Amino acid sequence: MTSTRPLRADAARNRDLLLAAAESEFAERGASASVADIARRAGVAKGTVFRHFASKEDLIASIVCKHITALTGIARRLSDATDPGAALLEFLTAAADQRQRHDLTFLQSASESDPRVTQVRDELHAALGTLVDRAHRAGALRSDVTETDVFLLMCAPVHVVENLAAPAPLLWQRYLAIIFDGLRPDGAHPLPQPAPTLP
Amino acid sequence: MTSTRPLRADAARNRDLLLAAAESEFAERGASASVADIARRAGVAKGTVFRHFASKEDLIASIVCKHITALTGIARRLSDATDPGAALLEFLTAAADQRQRHDLTFLQSASESDPRVTQVRDELHAALGTLVDRAHRAGALRSDVTETDVFLLMCAPVHVVENLAAPAPLLWQRYLAIIFDGLRPDGAHPLPQPAPTLP
Amino acid sequence: MTSTRPLRADAARNRDLLLAAAESEFAERGASASVADIARRAGVAKGTVFRHFASKEDLIASIVCKHITALTGIARRLSDATDPGAALLEFLTAAADQRQRHDLTFLQSASESDPRVTQVRDELHAALGTLVDRAHRAGALRSDVTETDVFLLMCAPVHVVENLAAPAPLLWQRYLAIIFDGLRPDGAHPLPQPAPTLP
Amino acid sequence: MTSTRPLRADAARNRDLLLAAAESEFAERGASASVADIARRAGVAKGTVFRHFASKEDLIASIVCKHITALTGIARRLSDATDPGAALLEFLTAAADQRQRHDLTFLQSASESDPRVTQVRDELHAALGTLVDRAHRAGALRSDVTETDVFLLMCAPVHVVENLAAPAPLLWQRYLAIIFDGLRPDGAHPLPQPAPTLP
DNA sequence: CATGAATGAGTCTTCATTCAT
DNA sequence: GATGAATGAAGACTCATTCAT
């Protein structure tokens, strides 16, 4: 299903319905949402899920790809903003906002090994690298912090909030602000461990 | 199983074996680790799991309780340290360290409704409240963050690191340092959302 | 499964195989017959049982419904017979005969709470009521006996016989004759307790 | 456990506690009442059950024996009553009453193969035979019914009533009266099947 | 292409029974 | 004798996946 063969119109529509249904179902029920429920929500038969996605894992990977790709688009659009510091904050805000609307963290690990995911992830790393570089040069980011650091911290604000039963919808902004303060150059204390490098 | 009935020596040993095995298994496979695998790892029969824990949920709750209680102990021990700021950092370090060794976040939601968990969690809130108060009075903490903020941020450093396939064992210290910098009074920017209150 | 969705030919066949297998299995082993055994006897996989019946209870209720409905049909067919007394005896004979071939009494209690069962049971009460009324008017039934009495006594002849290890196939007719003699007007002694009323 | 070795006082007491507890538990929960519940109700440990009874089946057989033996006692006591017809009715009343208080029918089949049960059952047959003979000679019983007929019909009145959700406590007397009317000589119609003989 | 019936491995849980304490 | 911890074979039920229609 990785191939780029053109789909018949109705098939393409079913694929989109399924992706949307799966997203909602995963967001509500976690990774253990059942294929049957997803199919029902999409209004198609169970068999159709497997015509479009080789396995449940594949479906998950597709969703994750879609979201990562969206983030990459945002990062690229911000790569020539006039205020690089504000641009980075805006990216992190957009990332958290997207994650807030569809809780999909847990899905990442599930699809870690999928080559499509690694590919789009690398693209996101590249795009985010540009933002981070520019922020560094503008002095908006503490110098001992790398693109990977920012990448890893990206999902933290929403994660923090998820430990609450009924968090205010925008509460994550509070924790993004705190973490972003920790990323600023002023008042930065030396970091105890070296930055990680990607494999 | 909260009752204070004294356990026979061999039974107590099995209970501990089970808790340890369950911890490892949950850490490796997530909350969907099977009771059968846990039993095998502990070297006992499946039925023995249910002799010690009324259900899988009960087992999870027991583990979570154990860990929360340990944290409460740490917080209490630090409540009269001479340097309140250092004490708070030490607590967060200990918390992250514990969580790093047994990834159990996901279990929290699973046992949210268990009264034993809510009880020990409240106790942790109280103990952490003392640490935060003292840090505030010592000027070691920005004035606009609350105990609940610190509580929620507690697990973030390890969570951040979990998105990496093979993180360096102490890498979380790096993100704890960044987040803690964000909690310091110097260079703090105003927070966009009010602090959450617990139910 | 009461819905009127048309079943695919093979599915309908499996459903019937399952009902038949379940009937036999329950008759032989009682209500504790296992779903696995039923599936094996029907020549299908365990999962198929649950595709057709939401639960074991649902399966039981379906069987009970089927049998009660068959009885209702018999009662209705007899409701305009020329000899009301003979018609009632014929109904009781048919009822005992059916029950003899599939011992399902014990299942009744198991499915008491199912609304489908209560519904068809009410219909049977109504149909039997007609038979009893006509028998009363024809003087073929002692006057102090009600429809509910007849309903309750319906299964007694077969039950009586079940205490025997290897009863003659038609032995129940002997006890139906005795009980029916007890229901006749001649030689009737007054009854010590009032007739029960249905809820 | 069939042996007649004298038990230590406390052991004998435990045995009685267990029998009583088992009776209640079976009456409430049916044959699937668990050994654990029975032990708890008796206030002893699970292991003790198996010290007194070789198996759950053996426990059931013991209860059934106890009840059958009690009935035999009643039958013997009535064997020289002045009115043989009244004596037979009284026996059937006592039998139904006992069965009403402890629903144990289902247990019979469970213990059919136990030699102790067959033995006491034979004794009951003998004692009941005397009552039936005398009733025949007194002209209180239709001539075409045998001791085995009466034996088999013995439990019917209570069984009939069990199909009701909440029967009046003495409702079974109504059906015993009807059945007994069927056993009287007056108005008896010929029986369609020969009387069964015991193996 | 889409359907949904069938599969069967796998899940949690229960329980009669055994045996070391 | 009594205890209760341990066992392991079932049991009901779920679900990703396959395939005939």
From TrEMBL, chains A, B, C, D:
| Keywords per UniProt | DNA-binding, Transcription, Transcription regulation
Instruction: Write out the GO MF terms.
Output: DNA-binding transcription factor activity; transcription cis-regulatory region binding
InterPro entries linked to this entry: Homeodomain-like_sf, HTH-type_TetR-like_transc_reg, HTH_TetR, Tet_transcr_reg_TetR-rel_C_sf, TetR_SbtR-like_C
Against SUPFAM superfamilies, the record matches this protein to: Homeodomain-like, Tetracyclin repressor-like, C-terminal domain
The protein's matches in Pfam families, at most eight in alphabetical order, are given as: TetR_C_43, TetR_N
Q: Where is the signal peptide?
A: none
| Alphabetical list of PANTHER family matching this protein | HTH-TYPE TRANSCRIPTIONAL REGULATOR BETI, HTH-TYPE TRANSCRIPTIONAL REGULATOR RUTR
Name of this chain's protein:
TetR family transcriptional regulator
